[in-house]
Amino acid sequence: MMMSVTLDGGFTGLGDAAAQADQAMRNVRVLLEEAGSRMEHICKITTYITDRAWREPVYAVIGRHLGSIAPVGTGLIVNGLAINGNVEVRAMLWTPLPGMLKLMLSPLP
């Protein structure tokens, strides 16, 4: 799960759910790229927020980071999150294995 904690341990956007969502999505991108993956490999995203009023600004930020990527999504409103944050993002991804596309496109015997 990614939250508004920067990768060097700082906290971003106290009381600003959109800023927290932005930092969480930046974290997702950095960690995916460090693992040799890409944002395009995200197949499901789960967003946790602590107030229904933050739904639109948070989803707008996440949408900006995803661009044309359209993963399955779930949004949950929760009573509290770690480290006094208001937003957490969980991204699941699918990374194709080498040769998988060729196998998937091959005709059946």
Describe what you observe in this structure.
The chain is an alpha+beta fold and 109 residues long. The protein has one domain (2-105): RutC-like (60s Ribosomal Protein L30, Chain: A). It is built from 3 helices and 4 strands, in the order βαβαββα. The protein has helices spanning 17-34, 55-66, 100-105; strands at residues 2-3, 42-49, 72-77, 87-93. It has a 4-stranded mixed sheet, with helices on one face. Helix 2 links the parallel strand 2 and strand 3 (72-77). It is globular, with a radius of gyration of 16 Å. The chain starts with a strand and ends with a helix. The model has no long low-confidence stretch (mean pLDDT 85).
Quick structural summary:
The chain is an alpha+beta fold and 109 residues long. It has helices at residues 17-34, 55-66, 100-105; strands at residues 2-3, 42-49, 72-77, 87-93. It contains 3 helices and 4 strands.
Task: Report the span from N to C terminus.
Answer: 42 Å
**The first-level CATH class name:** Alpha Beta
Task: Briefly note the structural class of the backbone.
Answer: alpha+beta
Q: How does CATH name the architecture?
A: 2-Layer Sandwich
Could you say how many structural domains there are in total?
Answer: 1
Indicate the overall shape.
globular
